[in-house]
Specification:
Elements (H helix, E strand, L loop, with lengths): L12 H40 L1 H15 L3 H7 L31
Length: 109
């Protein structure tokens, strides 16, 4: 008996297995994409936290740089905003950037 174009044929074993494997691959790819998206969100969150500490890190680096200097010339170089009275040295009480009325008795105008 020959089949007419209007009759549907039963799928072969190969076609059934092919459909099953294609659906498994599709499902696995969907899970992989979802996992990659979740990982991407976590990486973005972690880098955001890192950016939040950039200012604090910069401040600590500056503190470390200032604390690394010793000696009169190096202190004056490390603290460009410090007001040093003419003839004053780092060991003098008049060294430093202390504003009037800030509690220091060694301020010299």
């Amino acid at each position: 008996m020959s089949q007419t174009p209007h009759e549907q044929h039963e799928p072969s074993y190969f076609e059934l297995e092919k459909e099953k494997l294609v659906s498994e691959v599709s499902e696995s790819l969907g899970k992989a994409i979802a996992s990659i998206n979740a990982l991407n969100r976590k990486i973005e969150a972690n880098s955001g936290v890192g950016r939040e500490f950039a200012g604090v890190s910069k401040l600590w680096k500056e503190y470390e740089r200032v604390m690394a200097y010793t000696g009169e010339e190096k202190i004056a170089t490390a603290l460009p905003l410090a007001s040093v009275a003419p003839g004053a040295t780092a060991s003098d009480d008049s060294f430093g950037a202390v504003a009037p009325g800030a509690g220091s008795t060694s301020y010299m105008p």
